[in-house]
Known about the structure:
- It is a single chain.
- By secondary structure, the chain is mostly helical.
- It contains 20 helices and two strands.
- It has helices at residues 3-8, 11-21, 28-34, 41-59, 70-88, 90-95, 100-112, 127-154, 173-200, 205-216, 234-248, 251-258, 269-291, 297-312, 327-339, 352-369, 388-419, 426-437, 453-467, 471-482, and strands at residues 379-381, 384-386.
- Strands 1-2 form a two-stranded antiparallel sheet.
- A hairpin with a 2-residue loop joins strand 1 (379-381) and strand 2.
- The chain is globular, with a radius of gyration of 22 Å.
- The N and C termini lie close together (5 Å).
Amino acid sequence: MHRLEYISTIAADLGDIFFFVAPLTAVPLVVTVLFSEWYLFLSMAAVPVIFFLLGLVLKHLPRNERENRLSTALCSVALFWFACAMVCGIPFMFGLNMSFTDALFEGMAGWTGTAFTMMQSLDTAPYTLLFWRSFMQWIGGIGIIAFVIALASSTGLFQGKIYRTESREESLMPSIISTGRRIWKIYGLLTFIAIGLILFTGLSLWDSVNLALTTISTGGFSIHDGGILAYNNIVLELLLIPLMIAGALPFRLYYLISENRRWSLFGDEQVKLFFVVVAIGTAVLTYDLVYFGNTEILTALLQGLFMAVSALTTTGFQIANIQTWESVTLLFLLMLVFVGGAAGSSSGGIKLKRVVLGLRALVWWFRRLFVSGKVLIPFKSEGRIIPRATAELETAKTMLVIILSVIIIFVATIIVMQFHLTTYPITDVVFDITSAFSTCGISSGYVSPDMPVLSKWVFIVVMWLGRLEVIPVVVLFMALFRGSD
């Protein structure tokens, strides 16, 4: 179909989801009223109003009646995430006089669940905007969970298949909304549990609510300039570890447990691998901190465990100054950030599911080299034998995402280094770009409000690409510049 006809097919989908999001984005107005920050009321009220008007207009545009393809749904998701970042940056422009680029950066960091910020001072910022940042990450977290689960369910992944069809007759976006409605109870319950547990550590209700929102969503925004260390609370640091893990495990398993269809999280291979990687990561980081940094063993163990979990879950909380770490330790932490948590969770990264599938595919491929072409070696996934054609197709898609992820990080690093003669070593720049791509936000120090505008735009695009796992954004650009047949 022609480009305009193709774009018209996603209008109703976007209209549906803008309508769904509009009332949610009105929640921070309660904080505006409670703290009497009336000068922010109009800019905060503009967000739900704009979403409502966008939904109204898009739903009434002429729509092409041809079948909705998977590419159409992916374009809708990519456009939705970028539009949300733009609209949600409005309060920062009018409330803090931030530039359009900085406001868009803050909105993108919020919706993608990345702990980077362009705000000069958090301790003096309005309460409304602090809550808005936390709430954006919370909404974005449940949004990405709903998208991944709806996409996988609609393509048969959760029914015992790993095959993904290239076209679909039903729209995906209503499925995302429906899925979101089913899992919001679990997401909300985890959030309320987190609030209660954090209150137990002695924090105020205000701090507990904000911290719980950004922990369960694995977002990592803080309301203090000093981050987690500002609380000087070792009990809080220990408590945040299981809460970060809770946000990075597959939410589908929580649903199955609640429906009495599964009794344990550990029946999932992603969960098993997650804890194996956490154990290895903790051991390596602890050893490096003791051996290279002469850190006391207990302090090194706490920092190693916390930072390994924060990196793998891509939450982005920090209780250590990684700028003082050795390059080899920083590179190992980068690997954890790049891998990320489980598919179907709020965490970022390339996901443990792809790591498992990729490793299994490599073993399968090499085994076939040592046998006759007439011998059939089955490909197994989660105890099931997968047809050869299906296995090769899904393996190719998995490897494509991983390769594209590496290329994006490489190109982004080249662009930043080419146009910004910085004193930061290339290791630090690569780390922060990888952290942005994995929507983590642990920083080696490069990301700051003083970055050049070009670098900020590179990070904005990288966060967008990473949150949606590359493919939806690539499909969107192909549709805009090449159209669809």
